[in-house]
Design goal:
This protein is α/β, with parallel strands linked by helices and 462 residues long. The protein is 29% helix and 28% strand. The chain is globular and about 65 Å long.
Length: 462
């Protein structure tokens, strides 16, 4: 896989020039038009703005055709493309741009030159995706052309079985890993059509799915739940599959979705640093409520103890080896060395793998709460809280405690119209968890803070 990712898209465009690559409210663009428009922008960036191949190109564009054109133009220039979330605050964006050192930023329809760009690098990665910051300051995961090709061939192939007539709804933010791979690159690589939605509004997306020939719907659990909350929503006449990612999709949501729409949510696992290495597959109907799936073809998994020694028959930290893994964090060898060991990526997740290869996530290494010598994983406590009929969302974190070291604290959002106080929820957990596990502190809030892809930002709760 020594080809550039843009070469693969150009091959598709040559084979299907008049097929719609993109559709959006009030418009459409064929593969031929998409390539031609991207060439025009690439020439403009190079000739008018002095962009040099091998430099870094930042994008701040919503889910519009201009985003797709700019990404492909960047690839044509051998740029390292770095899409930024348009919802970033000024300080957050400034921090990322300082780390990125891009030569130019395409901000909507405006192109600006940036100070102190990194030097041109002929071996530059294809893409830099910044992490959500759920565990600290954002870091740029640098992904090669080969990693993009492998990841998206797996996604388009065994994971969701894309075909050229498919139409995928791109309501996920394209500046994030799940959106740009699962809702954009993979369908283009398959010669399918991407139906762009600039912003996820449940009622509008429900209408599009019902009225247009949408066949595949990638989304996060909160999106699926909000669609289920739309009165009368029952899927679409052409919808054959939904696919979840980013944050885990609860089995209850998957069941409710199937009952309402008659289609399945294909669940799985991945991160910014490596796209979808574990998943259920569209062609394999077997599912297990507690599991995130199995390693996709070509991916290796192992569990280790705190010293990095492989363990068997018990839980341990999940390590993954896949051709889709990042090269490293941009200009950050120390952070890279902390997670990449001899080709293995340390996920930071505690998992179990059964005899058939099904993976169940137990908790996070970094989120582990150490209370009076006991280890507690928040996911177990969150599962109990979410079983309470009044609870819509729950997040469990460690709080400093002068006697025990750390204490278990929960933040809970209630369902609309439901009633429960902190003492009721503490008692609920106390009846269902060991004495050292149940939360001593419960705080009721309106909603959990989340990233654009639905991940809970626990750092904002502490």
């Amino acid at each position: 896989m020594n080809r550039k990712f843009i070469d693969l898209i150009q091959e598709i465009a040559a084979r299907r020039p008049t097929h719609h690559a993109l559709r959006w409210d009030g418009g459409a663009m064929t593969y031929r038009a998409l390539m031609s428009t991207a060439v025009d922008l690439a020439q403009q960036l190079e000739r008018r703005h002095g962009f040099v191949p091998g430099q870094r190109l930042a994008l701040s564009i919503t889910n519009r055709p201009e985003f797709v054109v700019a990404v492909l133009a960047g690839f044509m220039l051998d740029a390292t493309v770095a899409p930024l979330d348009v919802l970033l605050k000024e300080e957050e964006r400034g921090d990322i741009l300082a780390d990125l050192r891009a030569a130019l930023i395409v901000d909507g329809t405006r192109v600006d030159r940036l100070p102190s760009p990194a030097p041109s690098d002929p071996r530059a990665p294809a893409l830099v995706l910044y992490t959500s910051g759920s565990t600290g300051r954002p870091k740029g995961a640098a992904l090669s052309h080969a990693a993009l090709e492998w990841a998206n061939r797996m996604w388009a192939g065994p994971i969701i079985g894309l075909e050229e007539p498919d139409v995928l709804l791109a309501a996920l933010p394209l500046a994030h890993a799940f959106g740009i791979n699962g809702a954009l690159f993979a369908p283009l690589l398959a010669g399918a059509t991407v139906r762009l939605v600039e912003r996820f509004v449940p009622e509008r997306v429900a209408e599009i799915v019902a009225r247009e020939p949408i066949t595949v719907l990638p989304g996060v659990a909160t999106m699926f739940q909000r669609l289920l909350d739309v009165p009368g929503f029952a899927g679409g006449r052409k919808l054959r599959l939904a696919v979840s990612g980013a944050a885990p999709c609860p089995w209850e949501v998957a069941e409710a979705w199937r009952a309402r729409t008659g289609t399945r949510i294909v669940r799985g696992y991945g991160s910014t640093e490596l796209f979808r290495p574990i998943s259920y597959l569209a062609a394999e109907p077997a599912e297990r409520p507690e599991s995130i799936g199995r390693a996709v073809p070509g991916v290796e998994l192992k569990l280790t103890d705190e010293a990095g020694t492989t363990v068997a028959g018990d839980s341990g930290e999940l390590w993954i080896r896949t051709p889709a893994v990042m090269d490293g964090y941009l200009d950050n060898p120390a952070e890279t060395a902390a997670v990449l060991v001899d080709g293995w990526f340390r996920t930071g997740d505690i998992a179990r793998i059964d005899g058939e290869g099904y993976v169940t996530i137990v908790g996070r290494v970094r989120e582990r709460i150490k209370r009076g010598g006991y280890s507690i994983f928040p996911a177990e406590v969150e599962t109990v809280l979410l079983a309470h009929p009044a609870v819509a969302e729950a997040a469990v974190v460690a709080m400093p405690d002068p006697t025990l070291g750390e204490e278990v604290a929960a933040f809970v959002a209630l369902r609309p119209g439901a009633a429960a106080d902190a003492e009721t929820l503490i008692a609920w957990c106390r009846d269902r968890l060991a004495a050292f596990k149940y939360p001593r502190r419960v705080t009721l809030i309106d909603a959990l803070p989340r990233s654009a892809t639905g991940k809970v930002l626990k750092a904002k709760l502490v």
